[in-house]
Amino acid sequence: MKIALEILLVLSSLLLLFLVLMHRGKGGGLSSLFGGGMQSSLSGSSVVERNLDIYTVAVGLFWLACILVYGLGVTFEFL
């Protein structure tokens, strides 16, 4: 159980890192690599950007839950 949780934690951490880097920042960020920095129908507050926000929050909450379960499991030794 502990090893499976550690694997989930590493995978969710990498996915969260990727999703955060995909967001468009003030300078364009990595998301401008796929759009070339041009104004198109896929930039700004479009469906793609909103979906990216939803996925980032969902993965962040999953990551937080993994951290809490792992921390409680190690502390109370039930893992």
Explain how this protein is built:
This protein has helices at residues 2-22, 31-35, 47-76. The protein is mainly α. Helix 1 (2-22) runs antiparallel to helix 3. The chain is elongated. The relative contact order is 0.17. The mean pLDDT is 83.
Structure keywords:
elongated; 79 residues; single chain; mainly alpha; 3 helices; transmembrane helix
| Structural class by helix and strand composition | mainly alpha
Topology as a string of helices (H) and strands (E): HHH
What percent of the residues sit in helical stretches (DSSP H or I)?
over 70%
- How many beta-strand segments? 0
- In the predicted model, the low-confidence regions spanning at least 5 consecutive residues are none
Biggest beta sheet attributes = none
Task: Note the overall shape.
Answer: elongated
Number of helices: 3
Cα distance spanning the termini: 6 Å
* Strand composition percent: under 5%
- The residue-averaged pLDDT reads 83
- Report the C-alpha radius of gyration, rounded: 17 Å
Family: Belongs to the SecG family.
Protein name: Protein-export membrane protein SecG
Subcellular location: Cell membrane; Membrane
InterPro entries: SecG
